[in-house]
Amino acid sequence: MRANTLIMIVLAGVFGVLAVVLANIWLAGQRSAMAQSNVAPRDTVVVAAMPLKFGDALSADKLREIPWPAGAIPAGAFKTAKEALAGEGTRQALQTISANEPILTSKITGPGQRATLSAVLGEGMKAVSIRVNDVLGVAGFVFPGDRVDVLLTRTVRGDDGADKSFVDVLLQSMKVLAIDQVADASKDNPTVVKSVTLEASTKDAQKLTLAAGAGQLSLALRQAAASKGETTERVTLSDLTGETPDDVAKRQAELDKKAAADALAEAERKRADDKIAGLTQAVERVGSRLDELGKAKPIPVAVPAPPAKDVVKEVIKYVQPEPPKNVSVGVFRGVKLETYDVPRQP
After folding, report:
1. What are phi and psi of 182, to 5 degrees?
2. Is residue 26 in a domain?
3. 194 and 271 fall within a common domain
4. Are 186 and 54 in contact (CB under 8 A)?
5. Domain range for residue 275?
6. What is the pLDDT of residue 317?
7. Domain boundary at 115, 150, 171, which?
8. 110 and 127 belong to one structural domain
9. pLDDT tens digit string along 174-219?
10. Helical H runs in 111-244?
């Protein structure tokens, strides 16, 4: 074998080994870069170690720290349990917090604050309570955290004097803060309550207060995911039967006509009763007068004495007159006088 051939074989082997080594070095570098790119910066977030309900006080045994991607930490979260419990006094949960759910500042009170209804209110919102019962309160199936529509039922008198009833949707998607005196959103047993407290703006609070005295308020429970309002319209009694306004007006006119006829007949009966009563009183007065005349003594009449030459003795005998059996009674009908003979009363 010639020397040149041997040298070429050796050089080929050296370059081949060198290429393999360089390829392995390059692949190792690529794998290391990919591994570093997949490892994001890590941080910690404080979560609930056990389920918490409204009013539960936070403590170290109820919290724990878990790893969390640094770029995805929720707003208002705490990085350490010490930070969550910092400050004088204990903090309390303002709503239900599930296990392993991050503890946020909006879900707990400040240091030393109590879990009251005022701490749950949003910025510029008010709490307004309305009275309900087992029917108006959706049979007790309304719980804190639900959203409801408030309906107002009223009866007003129209221009024609007839009462008209209707229902309006007063407010939509109102958040329920508490039922009676319970603000715990974890409550899941239906309970018949007497009042419901809603979160409302100042204007909506004024509407609720005014409507409570203007009619009857009732609640309509909304779907949990349905928070947007919808277009509504007034519902009247005619909508219940499908009648048109002309039908309602026609039926009302018939009722008014019948009522007027009944009133006229009643007035005629009253006038007839008054005439009969007046006639009876007149008869009683005439009878009383006749009785008085029958009891009166007749006045003696003096008879002149006859001449002396004619001596005549006269005997005067007083005879009691017999009262008449019938009595004539006159009644004026307008300007005409009508006479009736009626039996005299003893």
Report:
1. -115, 120
2. no
3. no
4. yes
5. 252-295+320-343
6. 64
7. 115
8. no
9. 888 888 766 655 555 666 678 888 999 999 999 999 988 888 888 8
10. 117-120, 202-214, 237-241
32 lies in some domain: no
Task: Give all strands (DSSP E) within 183-325, no chain letters.
Answer: 195-200, 216-221, 235-236
Helix (H, G, I), strand (E, B) or coil at 307: coil
Tell me, yes or no, whether 128 and 47 share the same domain.
Answer: no
The residue from 115, 130, 157 where one domain ends is 115
- Dist. CA 34–CA 36, nearest whole Å: 5
Structure token digits, residue 254? 């018939």
pLDDT at 304: 65
Only one residue has tokens 């959706």, namely 138
Q: What is the pTM of this model?
A: 0.46
Q: What is the DSSP letter of 40?
A: -
Token duo for residue 147: 């959203």
- State pLDDT tens for residues 325-346: 777 777 767 667 777 777 776 6
53-70 per-position pLDDT tens digit: 877 888 889 999 998 887
CATH of the domain at 74: 3.90.1210.10
134 and 191 co-located in one domain: yes
Tell me how far apart the alpha carbons of residues 199 and 120 are, in angstroms, rounded to a whole number: 9
What's the Cα-to-Cα distance from 341 to each of 100, 232, 259, 275, rounded to whole Å? 109, 76, 40, 17
Three-class SS state of 68: strand
